[in-house]
Amino acid sequence: MKIRFALGVVIYAVIFATQTQASALDFYFEVLKRRPVDYVVNGAVCEQVARLEVMQEYQEPEFETVVGVVYGHKSAAIGELDIVVLDRASNRVVMVAEVKCWDNLYQAHEKAAKQRERFIKALQVLPQMFLKSGERSFSRDQFREVQVYKAISQRGGQEFGFEMELAYSLEELMALRLRLLQCQKEGLCASPLKNN
Fold first, then answer.
1. Residues 6 or more apart in contact with residue 48 via CB below 8 angstroms
2. Distance CA 153, CA 113 (A)
3. Can you say whether the dihedral through the CA atoms of 149, 154, 158, 160 is positive or negative?
4. Omega cis (within 30) before 127
């Protein structure tokens, strides 16, 4: 009798956890379907989910979270910052994050660390640096006092050195991506193609 009860509790816990994960992914789907993002790029869904999770820590209206800030020298792009958080009061960047949802989390963390180092070096040495997200430009001065750099992965990344991990596996995030792509194809979700 005790074994049957314990087994029932475990099964209920697994079902509850699965339903909770599914409902959270449904929430992300409902939010992301309104954004005209190109989900053909594998990492886009991870960046968007990470943006939403970062926004829970850095909340509006005090902070603004931007995805995809390209930086470079003169007209040549050098790299892209996946997530940038600005303090609206000071107009300064308070956090920069690289998002990596890869099969090999060890290699993903190494890549994120190299990207971080490249950006910090560019800030220090480039005489004519540009920083842009779409049509919006940022100044180098806005990034000079960044104290927090994070590498963000799918579930399981903290074991490999990531400072933050999403609550979802790579498989769950890719299933969300496919759902968004299908929705865009059917014309039921915002699409970057319709907004060009």
1. 28, 32, 35, 37, 67
2. 13
3. negative
4. no
Show Cβ contacts of residue 9 under 8 Å, excluding neighbours closer than 6 positions.
Answer: none
Q: Please, where are the H alpha helices in the chain?
A: 2-32, 43-57, 105-125, 170-185
> Average pLDDT by consecutive 10-residue portion of the chain (196 residues)?
42 39 81 95 95 96 97 93 97 98 98 97 91 93 94 98 97 97 96 69
Angstrom distance (rounded) from CA 110 to CA 108: 5
Rounded to whole angstroms, how far apart are CA atoms 81 and 131?
9
Nearest to 28 by CA among 187, 189, 191: 189
Candidates 189, 176, 168; CA nearest to 37 is 189
Separation of alpha carbons 84 and 98, rounded Å: 9
Tokens (6 digits) for 91: 């107009």
Helix (H, G, I), strand (E, B) or coil at 76: strand
- Structural tokens at position 117: 């180092």
Judge whether 81 and 88 are in contact, CB under 8 Å: no
pTM of the model: 0.85
164, 150 Cβ separation under 8 angstroms: yes
Nearest CA-CA partner of 96 in 72, 66, 122: 66
